Amino acid sequence: MTxxxxxxxxxxxxxxGSGALWWAEHRLxxxxxxxxxxSERHARRGGSALPPYETQDTLTRLAELVAxxxxxxxxxxxxxxxxxxxxxxxxxxxxxxLTALMQNRHWIWITGNHDPAPAGLGGEQMPALHLAPLTFRxxxxxxxxxxxxxxxxxxxxxxSTSRPCFLLDRSRLILPAFGTYTGGLRSSDPVLSSLMAADxxxxxxxxxxxxxxxxx
Amino acid sequence: MSELPKAIESWxxxxxxxxxxxxxxxxxxAGAPCTLLIAPTGGGKTMAGFLPTLAELTNGPHDGLHTLYxxxxxxxxxxxxxxxxxxxxxxxxxxxxxxxxxxxxxxxxRRQRADPPHILLTTPESLALLTxxxxxxxxxxxxxxxxxxxxxxxxxxxxxxxxxxxxxxxQTLCPDLRRVxxxxxxxxxxxxxxxxxxxxxxxxxxxxxxxPAPDIRMLETREAPPWAGGGAAYAIPAxxxxxxxxxxxxxxxxxxxxxxxxxHNLWLANEGALPIGIHHGALDRVQRERVEGAxxxxxxxxxxxxxxxxxxxxxxDVDLVIQIGAPKNVKRLVQRIGRANHRxxxxxxxxxxxxxxxxxxxxxxxLEAVREHDLDGDPREPGPRDVLCQHxxxxxxxxxxxxxxxxxxxxxxxxxxxxxxxxxxxxxxxxATGGYALKAYDQWQRLLQRPDGTWQLRDxxxxxxxxxxxxTIQDADLIKVRLKRSRGGKPLGEVEEAFAATLTRGDTFxxxxxxxxxxxxxxxxxxxxxxxxxxxxxxxxxxTKFATSTQLSARILKMFNEDSWPSLPxxxxxxxxxxxxxxxxxxxxxxxxxxxxxxxxxxxxxxGFAGRxxxxxxxLLLTKRMEELGLDPLGFVSTDYATLIWGxxxxxxxxxxxxPKALRxxxxxxxxxxxxxxxxxxxxxxxxxxxxxxxxGARKNxxxxxxxxxxxxxxxxxxxxxxxxxxxxREEALRGLVDxxxxxxxxxxxxxxxxxxxxxxxxxxxxxxxLEVGKVPVKGAAEEKLLQQEAAALMQQSGLDKLLx
Lengths: 216, 805
Fold this sequence. Notes:
The structure holds two protein chains of two kinds. The longest helix of chain A is centred in the first third of the chain and has 16 residues, at 54-69. In chain A, the strands form two sheets. In chain A, strands 8, 9, 10, 11, 12, 13, 14, 15 and 16 form a nine-stranded mixed beta sheet that branches. Chain A has a seven-stranded mixed beta sheet with strand order 1-2-3-4-5-6-7, with no helix packed on it. Chain A has a single domain, classed as Purple Acid Phosphatase, chain A, domain 2, CATH 3.60.21. Chain A has helices at residues 38-44, 54-69, 84-88, 92-102, 190-195; strands spanning 3-8, 11-16, 21-23, 28-31, 73-76, 106-110, 124-126, 128-131, 134-137, 147-149, 154-158, 161-168, 172-174, 185-186, 201-204, 210-213. In chain A, strand 12 and strand 13 (172-174) form a beta hairpin. Chain A is built from five helices and 16 strands. In chain A, helix 2 (54-69) runs parallel beside helix 4. In chain B, 47% of the residues are buried. The longest helix of chain B is centred in the N-terminal third of the chain and has 18 residues, at 74-91. Chain A binds chain B through residues 6-7, 39, 43, 46-54, 57, 91, 158-161, 168, 170, 180-181, 199, 201, 204, 206-208, 210-213, and chain B through 438, 440-441, 443, 692, 695, 697, 700, 704, 707-708, 711-712, 715, 777, 779, 783-784, 786-788, 790-791, 794-795, 798, 800, 803-805.
C-alpha cells in the first residue's frame, strides 16, 4: 500500500488514500471519526432516515486495513461511536466483527465529543495518548505542537473535485473522517484556516493520497 | 338513457349552443360499462363525459356520491368545477359539486368523506388517499360513474397505473360502476381502451370528428437561430410581434428554466407593457391561481408556460399557440396546438420556434409528421411493480385483506392483467418483510399475517406514514423559495434541490419572472430577497427532459439524405451543405463517428440519433469501455442526436467500443455505481415505500433521501442482488432514463456499419455540442492523471514540495 510520506516533529508518518494514518516505527494505525451507529441514533431520535448499513461498511474497510498492515496498535481518534447508546446498541454481528479486529493488538479509544465513554467493548480509553514525540487527541488544541487530531472532517477541492483530506503543517495533522456517513468541513472554513499555518498542506484521499497547498 | 332532459337541452339552446354528435353518442351509451371518447381539444370532451351524469341526476334524486371525475392536474379539477357549476346553478339542478386535491383544506376533506357531494372532482393521488381509509366503502357508496379526463396523458406515467389499480378497488366496492375515459388524439386508441377497461370486459371507443387540420408553421425571424442552447432569445422580437397581432397567445416551453428565462427576456422587450403572465408547475399555488384567474377573465395577452398548461383547461380566447424549442414528440405537439382556438370546427393556429440550428431541422420534420397525421407512440409496457407494492400498502391501510382477493382485484386492471401470481407474491413479501437483505430491520417489517390468513399492518400507526408518502411523481426534489422576512415571507415557488445546493449567498437567479438574490437556506426553504435589474445567474432547475421520439429521429435522418433542402431556411441549408463538404451527413442504417482534435483534447462525436436519454447512457457506457481500453476519457455531453466524448487519446478503431455484447455487459457492470441508475432506484424505492420522503416530523430533505437511498442501493447490490427493487430498477432503467432499449435499437439499425471520419478540426454538425450545457465529467484514470499533474504543479509553484520533506 502506498501513501504520502511526511515528517511531523521528527516522526515519519504515512497518510493513506483511505483516510488512515500509519506510523511505521510503532506499527501504529490511526483512524478518526468512525461514527459507528449513526443511522441507529437517527432512528432513535425520531427520523427513520438512514438505513443501517454504514457501520458494516466502515468496519469492513477498517478490517481490510488491519489485515494488510497488521498493526500492533490501533488508535481510534474519537467520535468512534455516534453516541454512547450507539456503542451499546451495536448489533451482534458488528460487535463480533469489531472484537475480532481488536484481538491480539493494543486498541485505544480516544474519547470524542460524541462519545465521552465508549463502554463494554474492551480496549483502553483515554482523553489523549502521548507517544513521544506525538500527542493524539480528538479536537486540536490551538497552541499544541506535534499533535494528531480529528473532529473536523476536513475536505478540500482540486479540479472541481471535492474529497475528504488530511490537513498538515509543522505543528499538527488533522485526519479526515473514516466513517461512511460523514459530511465534511471545507478547508477554506475560517475555523480550519485559522487553525492551520499559512504553508499548510491538504492531502486528498482517493485512489492515491495527493498533497496540495491547503485551499483557503 | 339517450335523451337529454328538457331543462338542460333548453339551457344549451338558450346560449346558441348545439350538442355535438359525439356528445350525443356518449349520452346514448350512458349505460355501457366502459367507454372511451377520443376527441380533439376543444371538442367539448369534458362536457360529453358529464352529460350522462347531469341527465341522471336531473331525472331523479341520488343519495351520496354519483360521479367521480379524475384529472391529472389540480388546476383542471378546479376549472371543471367552475364550468360545471354554471349550468347547474343557472338551471337550478339539485346537484352538489366539489373538488378534492392536495390543496383542499383538511376540514373540507373530512366533510367530503362523511357526506360526499354528488360529483367529486379529484386527482389520482387524492383518490388513492381516499381508498386508503377504513371508511372507503361508505364514502363511495352509491357511486355510479367514474370519468377519467386526459387519460392519454395519465396512461403515459405511473400515475395512470396507480389510478387503474384504484379503479379496480372501486369496482370491488361498487360492482356496477361505469367507466368513461376522455382522450385527446392518440396513435393507438385500442391500447388506451384496454388500459381503461375492467379486464377482461371490453371498452367501446367513440371517435369524434377530428375537425379541420391545424394551421401550423415555423416562425420567420430576421435573425438566424444560434448554434446551440434552448433559450430562443433571438426570437423575442418576432414573438412580441405575434403577441401584439393576436388576442391571447400561449407560449409553450419544454423546461421550466427555459420558460423563466424567456419570460424574463420577453418582459425586457415588452415596451407596450402588455399583460403577460408565466405559469409552470414549480410556481407557488397562489401565483398560479392568479394567472389562471386572469387568463379565464381574458385579461392576459400571453402566458409563458410549460407542460403544466398542456392539458384540457379551458383558457378562453387563445388564438395562437407558440412552441419554443423542438417539440420532441409529434403527439404532444398536436395536443398543444389544440389549445388554440377552443371553438370546434375552426383550425387552430400555431407557430414553431426552433431554439437552435439543429432544431430547425427537427421542427421541419415535426411539421411534416403533423401534415401526414403520423403520431408517435410506443407500445405500452406492463404495469410497474413498484406501484403494485404501493397499492398493497394502501390496501393494508384500509384494513386487513385476503391475498387471493387482492390478486384477483389487481389483475382486473388492464396494465396488470398479465401479472403472475408469483410476481404478486414477491411484491407482497417485499411489503411484509422488506426482502431478504432487510429482514433484520424493524422499520421494513410492515405487514403481518393474521391467524385467519389475511394480512394487516403490523403497526396500525404506520397507516399515516404510508399515506404521507403516496405519490408517484418522482421528479427532482423541489424545495420552496420564499422572500426573506422576519417571520417567513411570501412564497415564490420551488427550485430543484440540486440547483439550490450550487447557490452561494449573493447569487442571483430567476423565479416567477423576477430576479432574486440568494440569502440562505432556512429549515429547508431557500430564502431570497428581491434584486431587480441585476442580470441573473441562470436558473438551471430543469423540469422534465423529453427525448426526441424514434419516429421524429427517423424523419430527421431521412431529411438529411435529400439532395438539397429548398424548404429549410438558407442558414440551416448552408450549414448542412458545409457538413456534407467537410465530412458527411449521418444516414439511416449507418453509424457516423467523427474524430478530431480540439483544444489539446481528442474528441469523438457519435451520431446515434437515439434521443437524449439513450445518448446520455451511450456516453456513460462508451466512456467506461474507453476507460477499460486505456483511452483516458475525460467527459462527454449528449443531445437528442449525438454524443461528444473528449479525452487524452485518439480513438482509431471504434468497432470494439460498439460491440453489442460488450455494451450490454458494460451496462450490467456499470449499473453498479451509476447516478442515473441510483436515481431510478430512488424513484422505485420511494414509490414502493422502502424510503419515506415525508415523516411526521418534517419532510426529509432530498439530499438526505438521496444519500440513504444510494447506500441502500449499494447494499442491496452487494448482499441481495436479486432483491425485488433492484429487479424493478433494472427494468425501469432499460426503458426510462437509461433507455438502453433505444441503444439496442440503434445497434440493430446500423448493424456494425460504422463509419469513422478522421477530421483535422471540428465539423459543422459537431460544433454546437461544444456549446451544450450538461457536460458529464468522467472520474477515471485520466482524471486521476490530471489531478496528480495539477497537485504536483501546485506543490511546485508554491514551493511547498521542498518545505515539509
